[in-house]
Fold:
Amino acid sequence: MNGDFLEHYFTNNEALKSELRIIKYKLDNHEFIFNSDNGVFSKNKIDFGSKVLLENFLKENKKNVDNLLDIGCGYGFMGIVLAKILDAKPTLIDVNKRAIHLTKMNLKENKIKGDTFVSDIYGQVQNQFDLIITNPPIRAGKIIVLKILQDAKNHLNEEGELWFVIRKDQGAKSILKEIEAFYENEIIKKEKGFFVIRSKKR
Structure:
């Protein structure tokens, strides 16, 4: 990964040249089209960690999900796919303005009704959710990642769940220790160094 990529996907660089591209994704009988661009996370393909998280959530989840929050949504992959398959109302947030612009395009492209807006972590979020899902921006630093995970509890319904993915070599075990005071955590899947984790409020 080059320095430009690392610098920009969780920041805003107004001068970064736009080069729109299309990414396709299919799950079962559902087909999705995503607009992507420079300056957003995993701009050329669906991120493997996000894919592992999404697909394992759908495989393991037994609860009704009426509404969900995708935090650090990028161009909206997880929130849009889940909204379609679960028939849930999605809220998709990111600190990156270009990511939110793309997410608005992708909601329309995939005929999904949902809310999407720029938010610094949960700064602009007011609602409670059945599900909060995230592939947290590890390179934004551990303090940011922990805030995303810990503060999710303030936006979960009573029976709501936080699902996230994190690589073993990016501190999965230490992060789990840091949040165990707030959640009962379960490692749902380990795949190619990625841990898919389900967290329920204590």
